[in-house]
Write a structure and sequence with these properties.
Radius of gyration of chain A: 23 Å
Number of strands of chain B: 2
Strand order of the largest sheet of chain B: 1-2
Structural class of chain B: mainly alpha
Strand content of chain A: under 5%
Distance between the termini of chain B: 66 Å
Helix content of chain B: over 70%
Helix content of chain A: over 70%
Largest sheet of chain A: none
Order of helices and strands of chain B: HEEHHHHHHHHH
Number of helices of chain B: 10
Structural class of chain A: mainly alpha
Order of helices and strands of chain A: HHHHH
Oligomer: heterodimer
Chain lengths: ~100, ~300
């Protein structure tokens, strides 16, 4: 029973991390659009290549932010959440010994 | 051209040592303290010291130590570049130093305006510190920028600067800048708080994701080479041939390009936010008004 509980915690953390990274779609599309437009602009006015590239990189970095928030959540879910959740479970069990018998059943 | 004197060369060597030794010290410290691991090992910064303090323990981590080492190295670079500087300019390094200063000043002038030229040293410091911190991962060190505490520290510093320059036109104007239009005030406040958070997470997330992906790919290549080349006899069978060189190609993007780009973006965003929060026309108007008032009162 305890193994099952820990397994559910770990599995749900991994699932949540995977689902959080769905957010990667947004920045992907956004940055693709930005680069496409920058290529068009350079094709039309090759003399503006420098400033267009700088502005594009800048915009790409800002557009990436939402994806990075998702990445931070995913990293927390994979590396931090399981440990603290399992620790919480153990603490609860230690504080309430009557729960242990329920778990062993 | 005059021959360099012996003492000049000695001081030069001292400065070069100041540049190189911190990184060597960091590598030695890492080799001495890091436990050997196999397989995937993605950990945060190692904790070196845990000093008991009244409210909370003062923790000295690998990221902090490495960022101090980078600071010493930057100081060494600056001293070396400006050593033996003269009006006539005999040395090659003086040309390089002048170019760097001029490039930084023109960048600050271009994106912040004439009023903020004094910001050039600060921006240059952020740029070099961030770039060298990210590049230190090339030497196998723990890059300080992949610890959120370090980047959050810089972001909070920038946030204080933004708030200071918003307050320069008076507290009334500061409150007014959020209520434009009034219905959007809560969103404006949230976006103001989100500024340092997004700056810190952007830099940290980019560098950290690079190192995580590098570790995953290196481990994957090890498994792949065991699968493909495991039939080789003896030692050759267990040697991960695919791990040699291939991860370096990724490192070219994640460590070199991404690190330098993030440094540039952090500096650029600092300039944009600080300059964007400050209304220069309003400030000049208030200054003139105050001067007029002072003149009137002194005339009376």
């Amino acid at each position: 029973m305890l193994a099952l509980a820990i397994g559910i915690i770990l599995g749900c953390c991994a699932l949540g991390a995977g689902m959080a990274m769905i957010a990667g779609i947004g920045p992907g599309i956004g940055e693709g659009n930005a680069v496409a437009k920058a290529c068009e602009a350079i094709g039309r006015q090759p003399e503006c290549k420098g400033s267009v590239t700088t502005t594009m990189l800048m915009g790409c970095a800002v557009a990436e932010t939402t994806g990075l928030y998702a990445l931070v959540i995913a990293i927390l879910l994979i590396f931090v959440a399981p440990g603290s959740l399992v620790g919480l479970l153990m603490e609860t069990l230690e504080a309430n010994p009557e729960l242990i018998t329920a778990f062993i059943k | 051209m005059k021959q360099k004197s012996r003492s000049f060369i000695a001081v030069d060597i001292l400065y070069i040592l100041m540049m190189v030794l911190p990184f060597i010290a960091g590598m030695t410290l890492k080799i001495l303290t890091k436990q050997a691991t196999t397989g995937i090992s993605i950990t945060g910064a190692q904790i070196y010291l845990d000093i008991p303090f009244p409210i909370q323990n003062l923790v000295i981590t690998e990221a902090q130590i490495n960022s101090w080492l980078v600071i010493i190295a930057v100081l060494g670079i600056c001293l070396y570049m400006t050593h033996g500087i003269s009006v006539k300019g005999k040395l090659k390094r003086q040309v390089l130093a002048e170019w760097a200063v001029e490039a930084c000043e023109s960048m600050v002038k271009g994106s912040m305006g004439e009023y903020f030229v004094g910001f050039a040293p600060f921006i240059a410091a952020i740029l070099t510190l961030s770039a060298l911190s990210s590049l230190s991962s090339l030497l196998g060190l723990f890059p300080p920028t992949s610890d959120v505490n370090i980047t959050a520290g810089w972001a909070i510093l920038v946030f204080i600067l933004i708030t200071y320059y918003k307050f320069k036109c008076g507290p009334v104007m500061y409150v007014k800048s959020f209520c434009n239009p009034v219905a959007m005030a809560p969103l404006n406040i949230i976006s103001e708080i989100a500024t340092p958070i997004s700056m810190a997470f952007r830099h940290y997330g980019n560098v950290l994701s690079g190192s995580v992906i590098a570790v995953l790919i290196a481990t994957g290549l090890q498994g792949l080479s065991h699968m493909l080349l495991g039939w080789l006899p003896g030692f050759l069978g267990s040697f991960p041939f695919l791990q040699v060189g291939l991860p370096a190609i990724l490192s070219l993007y994640f460590d070199l390009f991404s690190g330098l780009l993030q440094a540039y973006i952090f500096a650029m965003l600092t300039m944009l936010y600080v300059a964007g929060g400050f209304d220069i026309d309003e400030y000049e108007r208030r200054k003139r008004k105050k001067q007029l008032k002072a003149q009137n009162s002194s005339a009376n």
